[in-house]
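#struct-pred

JT: dropping the chains for the assembly here, can someone run the whole complex?
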Amino acid sequence: MNQKNYARIVLVATLLFIYLIVLPIIFRNQRYLLNIVITASLLSCASLGVWITFSIGRINIGQGAFAGIGGYTTAILIMKAGFSFWQSFLLAGLLAALIGFLFGLVILRLKGVYFAMLTLSLTETFRLIFLNAEGLTNGGNGIMGIPRPGALSIAGITIIPNFGRSNIFFYYLSATILIIVFLAVWRLYKSRIGWIFKAIRISEDLTRSCGINIVKYRIMAYSICCFLGGIAGSLFTVFYQNIFPASFQVNDSVYFMLYCFLGGLDYLAGPILGAFVLTGAFEVLRFIQKYQEGIYACIMIALMLWLPNGLMSLNLGKVFGKRKEKELETTEADKLLKSYNPDSGRKSLKKEG
Amino acid sequence: MVIQMILNGLMLGLSYALIALGLTLIFAIMNILNFAHGQMYMLGGFVVYYFYYVFGLNYFFALFMCIPTLALIGVIFEKFFFRRVLTLGRREESSMLLAMGTALLLENIALIAFGYKEQGVPPLIHGVIKIFGGYLPADRAFIILMSVLLIIGLLVFIYKTRPGRALRALAQDKEVTYLMGVDVNKITMLGFAVGAALAGLAGGLLALTFPIFSGSGTPITIKSFLMIMIGGAGVVPGAIIGGFLLGMVESFGYGLISGSMTYLIIFAMIILLLIFRPQGIMGKPWG
Amino acid sequence: MAILEVENLTKRFGGLTAVNNLTFHVDKGEILAVIGPNGAGKSTLFNLITSYNRPTSGKIIFEGEDITGMPTHKIAKLGIIRTFQETTVFKEMDVFHNVQVANHLHFKSNDLEEFFNSPRAKADHLEVERRTRELLNYFGIEQYKDEIASNLPHGHLRALEMAIAMSADPKLALLDEPFTGMNAEETDRAMEMVRGIRDQKGVTVILVEHDMRAVMRISDRIVVMNFGEKIAEGKPAEIQQNEAVIEAYLGKEEEGELEDVL
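RK: done, full complex below.
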C-alpha cells in the first residue's frame, strides 16, 4: 500500500516536472509547439467538465455551447464594455454556470439518448444565437483583435504583471488553471459529493430513497461542468485573440467526449490524458492533414472495439488512477464467498427463529 | 405564398419522414443512436450522382443502387462494430461514441473520395406544375410521390411481412424474440441495413433538388435527431409525424424568416416540448 | 397510535386505476403486510407513499403531517425508507461506500464544508464510519466491506440492501417483496432480520410480499388488495378465513400460494 502511494507520488512529481519545467524549456523558442501544449491544457479543462456529467450518468454533447458562451462573454466584456481579462474570465465562468444551471433545471430530467440529443442540439442552438445576435457578437464576422491578459492587481497590489504577448506566460497561466481545476475536481471526487454523483449514476431511485436530493446534486454537477466549459472557452478566446460562431461546434463537443473516453471514464485523470494524447497525436499527424479527421475516427472506433475502458485501464491505471474495479474477478470472489458460512454475523438472531 | 410554402413543406416533410424512419428503426431494435445517419444520406446522394450523372445510367437504377450500397455499409457497421461493442459494452456511452466515430469516418472517406465541391444532377423531369397559385417543379412532385410510396412500402414491410414482424418483436423484447426461434443477429443486421438504406434513398431522392456534398451529413444527422425527439424515439408513427412537422416548420420558417432564426425557434420549441413531454409526441413514457 | 394514515388514496395511469380509494393505517411498532394478486396495486402504493408517483387524489399522513406529493428525499428525511422489488444496491461501489452514501442524512455539514474538509465535516465522516461499521456488523456483512457490491451472493445482497435502508434510521420501512426468490432457510433468516429491525431498532414495517407462509407468520395485520381496492383487513387468522380474499386468489390460478396455506 505504501509502496503504491510512493510510486504514485513519484509519477505525479515526474509528470508535473515535465509539464511545468521540461516542456516550457524545450519549447521556449518554438511558439507552435508551446501552443499545442496550451491547447491541450485548455481542452483538458473543458473535458474535465464533460467527465463530471458522465459521472452522474449523463452523456453530454453540449460542452461546446458553454465554451462558446464563455468565449463570447469574455470577448464582449473586454471589447465592448472595457472589462479586464481577469474580470471577464470569472464572469464568463459564472455566466456559463448560471446558464447551465437554468438549462439543468429542465434537461437533467432526461436520460440516455434524449439527454445526448438535446445537449447536441444545445451546441447547435448557441452557434445560431451567436450568429444571429449581430449587435453583440458581430454575427458571422466574429470578434477579432482581442487583447491578451493584462496585469492583475487586487487592492492596488500587482499580483500578476503585464506579460504582453509572451507565450510562456500564457503557458503557465493555462497550466496553473488546469492544475487548480484538477485539484478541485479531485477533491470533489474524494469527498462525499463525489460518492453521491457516482450513486446517482448507478441508481437515481435508490439515491433518492436514501434522502439525497438528487435534483440538487445533478444540477450541481452540470453547473460545475458548464463553469469549466466557460472558463476554458474564455481562455481559448484570449489565446487565439478572436472568436467566431464556428469556434465551438458539434465536433468540438464530440471531441471533449472522446478525450474522456480515450483516457477512461472511470479515472479522473482520464480526460487530461485523453486530451494530451490526442492533441499531441493530432500534431504529429499534421503532415497527413488530409486524413486527420479520418484517423481520429479510426481511433474512436478502435478504442470502443478494443479498449472500451480507456488508456488508464492499462497498467498505468493501477499506479495513477483509482483502484481498478474488480468486475472481471467475480469468479474468484464468488468462490470465496460461497465457501463462507453466511450465518456467523447473525447468530443471535438465528436462534430466535 | 402560403401555398408555395405548403408545397415545399410537403416535399421536405415527407423526405424527412423517410430519414427519421430509418433512424428510429435502428434505435428501436438496437438502442443505438446512429450518428452516421446524415452521412448515409450524403452517400446516397453521391450514389445517384455517379450512377445517374457521371455514368449516365437510368435514374431509377441509380436510386435503386442506393439500397445495396448503403445496406452493405449498414451490415458492415453492425456486424463488425456495433455487435461487438453492444455485447462487451459496460456503459451505454460506448455505442454512442462508436456511432460518432463511424459518422466521422464516413464523412472523411467521402471528403477524400469526392472532395469539398458541391455537385448537382440534371433534373429528371422538366417542367413546373402550378397548383392553387403555387409552383411545384416536377422533380419535387416526383420526390413527394416517391417518398409517399417508400413510406407506404416500409410500413407494409414492417407490419405485413414476416421479417418485418420479427423486427417489431425485436424492438419489443429481445429475449422473447430469441426464444420464439428468431435469428436475432440476422434480424438485427436486417434492421440496420434497412435503416441505412432508407437514409440512402432519401439522399438519392433529394439529390434531385439539393446540392450533393460531403459535408451535408452532420446537419441532416442533427435534423433527424430533432425529428425523433419531436415524435418520440423508436416509435414508427412518431418518426413520420416528427419528420413531417420539421419539414413543414422549416419550409414556413425559411419563407417567412431567415434559416438560422428558424432553427433557433425550432430548438426553443423542442426544449419546451420536452419539458412537458419528455418522451416526444408519440413516445411511451419511460423511467 | 397510527404512524401512517392513508386516506382515500387514488392513482390513475391514463385509463387504468392502479389504486382506488384506498384507506388504511399502520400503528407504531407494527408489521403490516399488504398482499394481493399481481397487478393489485401494491407496488404503486409504495411508489405513492414515497412520492415516486404523485397520487391522483387522496392523502398520506405521516406522524400527523400531510406528506402527499412531498419530494422523496424529504420523505426519507422525515423517516420513511423503502426497498425495491429487485434487490437494489449501488452495484459498482464497495459495500462500505454503499452504506456510507446511504448515511447521507447523518452528515450535518453542508457541501462547502465537505469540499474544504472542515473540522465539522471530518467529525461527520468519523461518525458515519462508525455507524457504517455498526450497521455492517449488525447485518453480518462486515467481512465484505471492501467487496464490490455486485459480487455479493444473493443473501448478503439482501442484507446490504437492508443495511442501506436502515442507514437513515427510519421510523417506517416499506419493504417490497423482501422474501421473494429465497429458499426456506434464507426466508427464515430474512424474517428474523425484519423482526430484528422492529424489535431492536423500533422500526415500523409495511411489507409487500407474495410468499404467503412468510406473510402469515411475520405480520401483525394484513391488508388485502385487489384491482387497486382494499378487499379485506385483519389479523392473519382472520384473513385466512375471509371469503373475499379466497375468491380473489382462487380467481387467479397462477398465484396459488394462498391455497397452500389455507
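JT: nice. Chain C has two domains: 1-79+170-262, 91-168. The mean pLDDT of chain C is 88.
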